[in-house]
Amino acid sequence: MSRIAFLGLGGMGSRMAGRLAMAGYPLTVWDRSDEQRRLLAHHGAHMADTPRAAVKDADVVITMLSDDTASRAVWLDAKTGALAALGDDVLAIESGTLSSAWIHELSQALGHTNFLDAPVSGSRSQAETGQLVYLVGGQESAFRRARPILKTMGSVVHHVGGNGQGAQLKLALNALLGTQMTAMAEILGFLAKAGVDPDRALDIISSTPIASPAVCASARLMLARNFAPQLSLDLLEKDFRYLLEAAGVLEAELPTSQAVHQVLAIAQARGFGRDNVSALVRLFDWPQANSALNPSGPA
């Protein structure tokens, strides 16, 4: 079996790496958190002190990192970066939701032939059960090589196209999700102020063809006041920012995404950034709705 190095053991990465360990892959892991590394060691993984040490003997390197800054440091840091220790035929797979510009730069640094951008659709529960959906960009040969490994962590593995196209589709999917969730939060606030029972309204909305399962699930969290982070508002704002940066380069008009990004920025200013995306409802809550979109308004 391929020797795998997995870098980044956050809420998603730890579960993905756990799937690989349980499948029997020889696994070396790295994370800034000693606690996360020790948890994977209980599943048989070897712990490394740096990204460079983790990849030294790897056939495949998978990273799951939160943003461009974290990814750049893990790959390119002068003292600890993984790139300097990669063998000639190592397959590198970047699974974080990152910007198109950084993915392009990283693919050039790693070599197009052996690099895949492979972000995932799904949350922690899907990572835990191996039900993620992969959106893969890169050469066909690298995709075929990676597919059995990715299938250990995901139920569906799509080859979107060349390098960068998986990353672009993931940003688009998150924009679509964020737009729907923002609209749902806004509508629930409106209906409550109109005197319509929100729970009853959501039951009816959920029964219609226009309601997606993901948005209805988020709406349930909104009504339950459950803001425990799965997809945080900070991460969603980052995804919209990366999308809008890419749109600027492509001269693509995204007025709806711009509007949603402004709402997310207000939520961050109100101190909700670390909360789950369901916390968007706090901007439109019926007790505070009159001043919710004022960044300095009451929480």
Automatic annotation (TrEMBL):
Residues covered by the 6-phosphogluconate dehydrogenase NADP-binding domain: 3-161
A GO molecular-function annotation:
oxidoreductase activity
Q: Which InterPro entries match?
A: 3-OH-isobutyrate_DH-rel_CS (IPR002204), 6-PGluconate_DH-like_C_sf (IPR008927), 6PGD_dom2 (IPR013328), 6PGDH_NADP-bd (IPR006115), HIBADH-like_NADP-bd (IPR029154), HIBADH-related (IPR015815), HIBADH-related_NP60_sf (IPR051265), NAD(P)-bd_dom_sf (IPR036291)
> Any idea which UniProt keywords this protein has?
NAD, Oxidoreductase
One biological process term in Gene Ontology: organic acid catabolic process
| Residues forming the catalytic site | 170
Superkingdom in the source lineage: Bacteria
Is Oxidoreductase tagged as a keyword?
Answer: yes
Record-linked Gene3D superfamilies: N-(1-d-carboxylethyl)-l-norvaline Dehydrogenase, domain 2, NAD(P)-binding Rossmann-like Domain
Can you give the residue ranges of the 3-hydroxyisobutyrate dehydrogenase-like NAD-binding domain?
A: 164-283
* Pfam families reported for this sequence: NAD_binding_11, NAD_binding_2
Annotated protein name in UniProt: NAD-binding protein
